[in-house]
Amino acid sequence: MKIPFNKPFLTGKETEYIEDAVMFGKISGNGDFTKKSHQFFKDRYGFKKCLLTTSCTDALEMSAILVDIQPGDEVIMPSYTFVSTANAFILRGANIRFVDSRQDHPGIDEDLVEELINSKTKAIVVVHYAGVACDMEKIMGIAEQHNVYVVEDAAQAIESYFTFSDGTRKPLGAIGHLGCFSFHETKNIIAGEGGMLVVNDDALQARAEIIWEKGTNRSAFFRGDVDKYGWKDIGSSFLPSELTAAFLYAQLENLEKIQAKRRFIWKKYHIGLRLVADQLGMRLPEIPEYATNNAHMYYLVCESREQQKQLLDYLKRKKILAVFHYLSLHKSDFFKQKHDGRELPMSDLYSNRLIRLPFYFELGVAQQNYIMKNINRFSEKEISLQKFQIA
Amino acid sequence: MKIPFNKPFLTGKETEYIEDAVMFGKISGNGDFTKKSHQFFKDRYGFKKCLLTTSCTDALEMSAILVDIQPGDEVIMPSYTFVSTANAFILRGANIRFVDSRQDHPGIDEDLVEELINSKTKAIVVVHYAGVACDMEKIMGIAEQHNVYVVEDAAQAIESYFTFSDGTRKPLGAIGHLGCFSFHETKNIIAGEGGMLVVNDDALQARAEIIWEKGTNRSAFFRGDVDKYGWKDIGSSFLPSELTAAFLYAQLENLEKIQAKRRFIWKKYHIGLRLVADQLGMRLPEIPEYATNNAHMYYLVCESREQQKQLLDYLKRKKILAVFHYLSLHKSDFFKQKHDGRELPMSDLYSNRLIRLPFYFELGVAQQNYIMKNINRFSEKEISLQKFQIA
């Protein structure tokens, strides 16, 4: 591919910091770079308790353990999401109740959540699709009323905010009881594979640290809070190596620079594609009043499934790798027999019609112009075809 | 500490390969370096199916999913092991039946396994302590007779072998249905945090690949075996990043060099400490006929718990970090109420008396001499103290 969908970006210090970690004599988890990364997030976003993980999947699995999912408990989440959002809770025995997406956005339709809550409901998991906030005021209200946990799958949502109706602004990941981030290579800030759990609920913090360290109180031991450590709970090896943390920290130091470039790319797509989108009957992303734009992704919602396929094929012939995204989880081979039969038409619509355009730090102006020019060419071809058919 | 217990070692190509991975445009999991690492293990050890993981813990968790642990199933394993050996199976709902260690070695006492097998038993997990093989002929015989799975916790056991009575020699990790390796910074071959699952049972291979890729058939898709991929099963993000795999591959290229140095260190301890061990009533490690020595660890078994404490303290004053190891899991805060009450005296003995000496690639001759000299000084002090007490 001449223009890939994604391309990881080295800010310059990653391998230097990895060498530092080796020289410091510690490349397993929970060393200096892990602590510095935690501190970065605390300072910038006011997160109370941060724990780097080997993936966002692992942060979601920690969440499922922390909210104490028991077999038969129910968890509510959108169907239009990554498999890990669901698998993390299914591994603990949860039954998933999938919810449809909004008309104007692939995020969970907040108005469809409450009707699914019953005495077995343990948690609502929201996914901030494309880094754009769900209506967290509505979600937190429902959760409080019914006394269920809220887990934010903020995999795509670093450096994104939600504004409450009283004007308070909070970073995504800091609003629910738990927040889960990803540093997978396709994200704004990367570490190959990587993630982070943010623990906002004070009552869950001590246990989070134990679960993170394989079910032991090793962290407390190293802080000097206890004089020996041992096996206290279930848990796993959720913590990433210092190699991963060192790489991540180099990226975090360049967050502003990365975000500035990504916002530039996002805006250029958004201005440049307005006209052709109208011509093709496509929808462009919209940012609600209460949300900010972290420029994680640029997507189009096609007029039809056929148009999605045709445009993806057309761009592929031009050596541009645009891609579709999730497939409705309630219709997957694994889940379709378990689903309760409700139709989730918006989730299916985004599965069949959404296209993500190439988006990465090193995407140049000429490349972006080439992508947009080819979407215009596709449109002209379509329009002349329609004229021909009408004639 | 002047002499740490462990010190990670860069062979020289690690950061170069990490930069290569970035330049190849792929730093998430299952890229070129992951495939090259898998191939290395296949070529060197004849492993059929290898899957790098983010830790040995994760390889054990994959094993628990693959042998299809259901709540109430029983799993037999030594009490003298790391918490992850047990937690991986407890996360799937297993009840653990802990077994004592051998008199002559901290590994599982094979003769105590069969009496614990019943209709609920799903698997036997053996731990090749210090990289020295358990009697796999005995274990596989029991497993076959009772139709239970065998999982090898080969965390410490890279480049170590077992010889069957008919003369056949097999690498550890290739004998049970599943084998789990660690590349944690304390191991012979390191990647910070990291591990690998080896799938020896053909019937488990296809599912292993799906569980590894978050419950999707993405690996088959990328091979071109299926034309689209989706959600097929439970699973997690078990695969490590290419950053981790690149680091690991640089280490693997230097396996022979690393092993030669480690064998030298091991032998030097073994020869140099014979006399003083006899004086102190300590035991040195012994390698059974059927096993090989991969020079993972050098340990002493003290005469008493007091001696362990005194020697550790003495060495600490000399700025030498020697350390004890596992604490019997059946006596942990988490498990003691769940244990069936059997005494496991050898496990307790190793918990209370075993000392691991500093052991890493860059441990110099002068440092090793200094360590051994101080163990001798400790002995002289002990002996003169005894004389004084007798007098």
Rg of chain A, rounded, reads 22 Å
Largest protein-protein interface: A-B, 63 and 64 residues
Class of the largest domain in chain A in CATH? Alpha Beta
- Intertermini distance of chain A: 37 Å
Mean of residue pLDDT of chain A? 96
Q: How much of the residues of chain A is beta strand, in percent?
A: 5-15%
Write down the domain tally of chain A: 2
The number of helical runs of chain A is 13
Structural class of chain A: alpha/beta
| Secondary-structure element order of chain A, N to C | HHEHEHEEHEEEEEHHHHHEHHEH
Q: Which word captures the global form of chain A?
A: globular
Oligomer state of the chains in this structure: homodimer
The CATH homologous superfamily of the largest domain in chain A is named Type I PLP-dependent aspartate aminotransferase-like (Major domain)
- What fraction, in percent, of the residue positions of chain A are helical? 25-40%
Which topology of the largest domain in chain A does CATH recognise?
Aspartate Aminotransferase, domain 2
How would a crystallographer describe the biggest sheet of chain A? Answer: 7 strands, mixed
CATH architectural category of the largest domain in chain A = 3-Layer(aba) Sandwich
DSSP strand tally of chain A: 11
